[in-house]
TrEMBL record:
GO terms for molecular function: manganese ion binding. This is Germin-like protein. Residues 1-23 form the signal peptide. GO terms for cellular component: apoplast. InterPro entries: Cupin_1, Germin, RmlC-like_jellyroll, RmlC_Cupin_sf. Pfam families: Cupin_1. Residues 52-196 form the Cupin type-1 domain. May play a role in plant defense. Probably has no oxalate oxidase activity even if the active site is conserved.
Length: 206
C-alpha cells in the first residue's frame, strides 16, 4: 500500500515536471483573440507595420533590439509567436540574458556574429555565425551575441515561440535591482568596492 502511494506520488511529480517542461503560451479555443475595445476586425488587425523603415537611415549607435510582441502587435496574443530585429554596430554586444518563456531562433541577415549559450551544467556552447546562418537558443538558457567585427555592422532577426518571450538580463538583474552590496560581494567572492564599480558602470546614464 505504502509502495503504491509512493509510486503514485512519484508518477504525479513526473507528470507535473513534464508538463512544466512543455509549458508554452496557453492554447486558445477560438481562432484569434480580439481586444475588448475592438470595433471590428479586418486585415489591418493582422498587420504590423511598426518596423517599416527599420533598415533605412543611419545604423544605431549602440546595440538595438526592436520587438514585435503582443504588446506592440495585439494580434499575436494567443498565437505563441513573436519576432525581434537585432542591430549590432561594429564591436557591440547583446549582453548575457535569457528568455523565460521561449526558445529563440536567430537568423543572421547581415554581417557575422559570435554567439554562445550556457546550459544548466554551466557548459558553454559557442559559434561564429555568417550571414544566412541560424542558431537556436534553448528556452530559459543564458546566451549572448557579439559582433566582433570592428568595422562592419551586423543584423539578425529572431523568432520566438511565445507572444511575449520575456528577457532577463544577467548584468541588469543582478547589479541594478538593489541587491545589497555585501550579499553580492559574498556571492561573487569579491569585495564591496568591486561590486560598487560594477553597479556604477550599469547605472542608467543621467
Ligand atoms: C483599444 O485599447 C488599446 C489600449 O488601451 C489602444 O491602444 C487602442 O487604440 C484601442 N483601440 C480602439 C479601437 O479603441
Ligand atoms: C479596418 O479596420 C480599421 C479599424 O477597425 C479601420 O480604420 C479601417 O478603415 C478598416 N479597413 C478597411 C479596409 O476596411
Ligand atoms: C568559442 O569561444 C572560445 C573562447 O572564447 C574561442 O576561443 C573560440 O574561438 C570560440 N569559438 C567560436 C566558433 O566562435
Amino acid at each position: 500500500m505504502a509502495l503504491k502511494f509512493l509510486e503514485l506520488t512519484l508518477f504525479s511529480l513526473l507528470v507535473a515536471l513534464v508538463s512544466i517542461a512543455n509549458a508554452s503560451d496557453p492554447d486558445i479555443v477560438i481562432d484569434f483573440l480580439v481586444p475588448a475595445n475592438s470595433t471590428g476586425v479586418n486585415g489591418t488587425f493582422f498587420t504590423y507595420s511598426g518596423m517599416r523603415g527599420i533598415f533605412d537611415g543611419e545604423d544605431p549607435a549602440t546595440f538595438k533590439v526592436t520587438k514585435a510582441t503582443f504588446l506592440e502587435f495585439p494580434a499575436l496574443l494567443g498565437q505563441s509567436v513573436s519576432l525581434a530585429v537585432l542591430q549590432f554596430p561594429a564591436g557591440s554586444t547583446n549582453p548575457p540574458h535569457s528568455h523565460p518563456r521561449s526558445a529563440e531562433l536567430l537568423f543572421v541577415i547581415d554581417g557575422s556574429l559570435e554567439v554562445g549559450l550556457i546550459d544548466t551544467t554551466n557548459k558553454l556552447y559557442n559559434q561564429t555565425l555568417q550571414e544566412g546562418d541560424m542558431f537556436v537558443f534553448p528556452k530559459g538558457l543564458v546566451h549572448y551575441q557579439y559582433n566582433a567585427n570592428t568595422q562592419e555592422a551586423a543584423t539578425a532577426v529572431s523568432a520566438f515561440g511565445s507572444a511575449n518571450a520575456g528577457a532577463v538580463s544577467v548584468p541588469a538583474s543582478v547589479f541594478t535591482t538593489g541587491i545589497d552590496d555585501s550579499i553580492l560581494a559574498k556571492a561573487f567572492k569579491t569585495d564591496v568596492t568591486t561590486i560598487q564599480k560594477l553597479k556604477a558602470g550599469l547605472a542608467p546614464k543621467a
